[in-house]
Specification:
The chain has 261 residues and is α+β, with helices and mostly antiparallel strands. It is built from four helices and eleven strands; from the N terminus they run βαββββαββααββββ. The chain has an eleven-stranded antiparallel β-sheet.
């Protein structure tokens, strides 16, 4: 879609697609905005996207921006994603990792749309990433060089036909959603004392449409050392034969013990 000819429009996020309480899930937001961009996209989330609220989408010089009244909430632009991706774990290792899942996104009573075990397939994606192996804390002077570009968490995801588009494939918005939370779980696996994480930037690429009722391996790793509150993570979705289906490069912000707002 050409941003230069995009007329102003509006979007609203149904409350089922929450991340933090009363706010849209970061991956769902990314998929919502990426739908206005052809090909790979970079999504920047500047502020919380409230659910059940009309939001204005306006073209800008690079893509689109989303506002609530005069407040900029986020933007999307076209990119070519360049991301080195580790060899994915096999299906058995990913399934074993999911058994070590420890739920962390629970500010809403239902939990997060993507990773809550309190939800059924009717109202959640049930992406349960757990550590692939025990992560040993390094010496204080070393910023985990052995954990960079190494898969830290994984799971097996089997999307249901509830997520299909008119072509019978998993709608891209749900693929973007599934790419979200694994990054936060990888941060927690690497940093036992990590605070609450908010997704700030997500650059994504969907290589091949996903099919319903098939198993996919999702994994996440650390791309580079921390910079202040910033955490740099990669997430990938592979099929059982090891073919890359989708991937994302993320910047998360460690918020300590309290989410803003």
């Amino acid at each position: 879609m050409s941003s230069g000819t995009l007329p102003p429009t509006s979007v609203s996020i149904d409350s089922v697609y929450n991340g933090p309480i009363h706010c849209g899930n970061g991956g769902y937001i990314s998929g919502l905005l990426a739908a206005f961009i052809e090909g790979d996209a970079e999504i920047r989330i500047n502020a919380a996207f409230p659910v059940e609220t009309p939001l204005q989408v306006k073209p800008n010089d690079e893509g689109i921006s989303v506002y609530r009244d005069d407040k900029l909430l986020g933007s999307a632009r076209s990119i070519q994603l360049d991301l080195a991706i580790p060899t994915p774990p096999n299906l058995a290792s990913a399934a074993a990792a999911s058994q070590r899942f420890d739920f962390i996104h629970a500010s809403d009573p239902r939990g997060c749309y993507v990773c809550s075990p309190l939800r059924s397939e009717e109202n959640g994606l049930r992406v349960f990433c757990g550590p692939l192996s025990e992560v040993v804390a390094p010496e204080p002077s070393i910023d985990w060089p052995t954990e960079i570009e190494k898969n830290l968490v994984a799971t097996v995801w089997r999307p249901s036909d509830k997520c299909c588009n008119n072509e019978g494939n998993i709608d891209n918005i749900y693929v973007w959603s599934a790419l979200d939370c694994p990054g936060a779980y990888a941060i927690k696996a690497a940093e036992a004392d990590a605070g609450l994480q908010l997704l700030g930037t997500c650059s994504g690429s969907i290589k091949t449409p996903l099919k319903p009722n098939e198993d996919y391996v999702i994994s996440s790793w650390k791309i580079s050392p921390n910079s202040g509150r910033k955490r740099f993570m990669g997430v990938a979705i592979h099929d059982c034969a090891g073919e890359l289906m989708a991937c994302a490069k993320q910047i998360w912000f460690d918020m300590g013990s309290t989410l803003p707002g």
